[in-house]
């Protein structure tokens, strides 16, 4: 299966509510970091999360607030 990216996803969409197991990324628009944390932590799932940024200090503070089993920063499934 080829990697797939869905853009302009909202929480009202099925793809915005459920995790998909496979090479899939859902892109949500946001304007405020507090909103992102609240939205991410409100979901009933949370096996993994990803953060992409150029600022590692901001990434570390941000990831500490996410309720997810694994949080990847600027990568995925790196061990």
How do you describe this structure in short?
The protein has helices spanning 14-17, 33-41, 56-64, and strands at residues 4-9, 24-28, 48-51, 70-73.
Structural notes for this entry:
The chain is of the alpha/beta class and 79 residues long. The chain is 28% helix and 24% strand. It is built from three helices and four strands, in the order βαβαβαβ. The strands form two sheets. It has a two-stranded parallel sheet. It has a two-stranded parallel sheet with strand order 3-4. The protein is globular and about 35 Å long.
Shape type: globular
List the strand order in the largest sheet. 1-2
CATH topology: the name is: Aldehyde Dehydrogenase, Chain A, domain 2
Structural class: alpha/beta
CATH class reads: Alpha Beta
Average pLDDT confidence is 88
How many β-strand runs? 4
Name given to the CATH homologous superfamily: Aldehyde Dehydrogenase, Chain A, domain 2
Stretches with pLDDT under 50, minimum 5 residues: none
Q: What letter string, H or E per element, gives the SSE order? A: EHEHEHE
Radius of gyration: 12 Å
- Percent strand: 15-25%
End-to-end separation: 22 Å
Share of residues in helices: 25-40%
Number of domains: 1
Second-tier CATH architecture: 3-Layer(aba) Sandwich
The DSSP helix count reads 3
Biggest sheet character: 2 strands, parallel
